[in-house]
Input
Amino acid sequence: MYTRRTWAFINFYFILHMTFIKSTIRPIVFSVLSVLGGITLGATLVGAVTTISTNITTAGTFNADDAATFGSTVAVTGATTLASTTATSFKVGQTGTQTTRIVSGYCVTESVTFAALDTASSTRTYANCTPYTYTNNTAVTLTSSDRVFVQATSSLPFYVVLQAASSTTNAVNLSLTNTSTSTLPTAGIYTFNFWAFQNQ
Output
């Protein structure tokens, strides 16, 4: 049996020990809760922010899983690869020309009959060429505002020269001249490659 003095000592030791544990653990618990609360609050704020009014610098990779809108100039100092993008206009270099549209593909003429052999009275032959895309052969929309570069293919006889080209509504207008003095090409369908663009 413990004496009263012994019980009193045991109770005092227990109270002192529990007080020490509380004073030691309480700051640790408060610290952990503060950290967890800060992380939760930060995640909530980041998820809700739509506008950041200060500069952002990262030494790692910047990744946008959804659409990103930039209201001002975006400066890129390193090499940039755009896997897929749609731009309303762009230019290369400080003094470059602002380009608003680029399309390319091939075009096919209707049956072309050349006007004459190469003589002093020769006239050019004009033909409209309907444009298509290379990938899925769908029609390409062109307007008279497009500037076109046209390349002949092997379908054109070697003695027929492409003199000029211009764009019209959904067509490339071609000017062809037969340079042969002895051979008049038979009526035929010809294909050409083209590259068209518009500037601001």
In short: The mean pLDDT is 77.
